[in-house]
Amino acid sequence: MIQIYKADNTNYEYNGDATLNPISCNLNMKLNDIWEMKMKHPIDDKLSLITENVVISAPTPQGKKQLFRIYDFEKSEDDITCTAYPIFLDSRNDCFLFDVRPTNKTGKDALTLMLSSNPKYSAISNIGKASTSYFIRKNFMEALYGDDENSFINRWGGEFAFNNYQIIVNERLGEDNGLRVEFGFNLNGISEKVDMSNVITRIVPKAYNG
Fold first, then answer.
1. What is the pLDDT of residues 119-142, one digit of tens each?
2. What is the value of pTM for the model shown?
3. How far is Cα 141 from Cα 144, in angstroms, rounded to an integer?
4. Nearest 5 degrees, angle CA 172-CA 25-CA 59?
5. Rounded distance between C-alpha atoms, residue 23 and residue 25, angstroms
6. Phi first, then psi: what are they for 30, rounded to 5°?
């Protein structure tokens, strides 16, 4: 069941303001990157509720009720398509690290210190390795997986997943259960997409004289 909460309704423990019946609702869960949800909904009496900054809850592999905030939408004559991201990404605006320096800390202790400015957020981690890093004037998500050498992922390693206002950063997400995927056994088909638009097939050199 997919529900929607108006922007001024933050009682996420309770049912939302309405139940949605989308045409499609797909979640792209990238490893160590931002998850993105795309939802297409028909034009109906729920249309006025679907706008930016509202929150939708939807079942995902992470849990039956995961919260996503809508950031943008596009309407056509027949439907509305919106893009939503995990509500944990609100930490980019309200969890700022002015000068945080976890020193010789395990992964869990470092994350707890990084989130200490806003108790709304929490973290769990099984990373026992001790390391040190300095986070100066960064929001939490920048500090977590930014490109610079001081980011948590670069210092402690790990893989992260979102669970509403909690982030999970473990040495490895999931486990090897010996799953077998094989044509004729439990795989009926596969699709492939090839894009050659950016492939360079030749180089033409040009000398100083033209």
1. 999 999 999 999 999 999 999 999
2. 0.80
3. 5
4. 55
5. 7
6. -90, 135
